[in-house]
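Design review, sub-item: ligand-bound model
Attendees: FS, YL, KQ
YL presented the inputs for the flavin mononucleotide complex:
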Amino acid sequence: MSTLPALQWRYSLKQFSSDKVPLARVHDLIEAARLAASSYGLQPYQIWVIDDSQVLAQLSEHAYGQSQITQCSHLLVLVNDTQIGDHTVDRYFQRYYQQTGTEVGSADGYAEHIKSALAAQNSPQRQAWAQQQAYLALGALLSEAAMQRIDACPMTGFDQEAFNHVLGLTEKQLNACVICAVGYRDNSIAVPEKVRTPTTEFAHFFA
Ligand SMILES: Cc1cc2nc3c(=O)[nH]c(=O)nc-3n(C[C@H](O)[C@H](O)[C@H](O)COP(=O)(O)O)c2cc1C
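KQ shared the predicted structure:
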């Protein structure tokens, strides 16, 4: 099994048809993001799913009026935790003991190591780290979408603070860091050519 045919098929769709993505498929995209790798497994991010046309219209005003936001089937908003610290690690290890049946406290040393590593960074560095993790989840989501022939447009062309305000994220200690419109293409519209760095410049076999 290769994802390559799906990745060749996909492109960032600008004009969506009016077809809705079935909710079960939206759940598949969420699941792909949930299963993505993250640093220490801490998953300092969430996905918020928006398909309310009024909210989408409001959000589009804070995204340079990009029509993907109002035309898509669902807008997936990847949000990162803004407060990251010991509680982030404790949250993970609570789940770890619960979900693996491992003796509670047996990984205390490792937990302390992660806490010290996080404490060595300042708050903006921790937030940047959380956003990097959210982008990995976005990558998994984009691949799953392509495999299922669901179109997507990842976007950072939006005002994060305004999105946080509209979606009530700030008070939940969350921040919208990247969004992804999903839906279906109109097959009568031409598919744009892919522009990519040639493999000879992109990949280097160090010897
Ligand atoms: C992090 C990120 C942010 C992006 N932001 C926007 C955006 O705000 N608006 C947009 O139309 N496309 C956006 N794109 C899509 C890129 O322009 C697109 O992925 C790139 O040109 C490669 O083309 P392709 O995805 O169609 O293969 C973004 C892509 C990424 C990964």
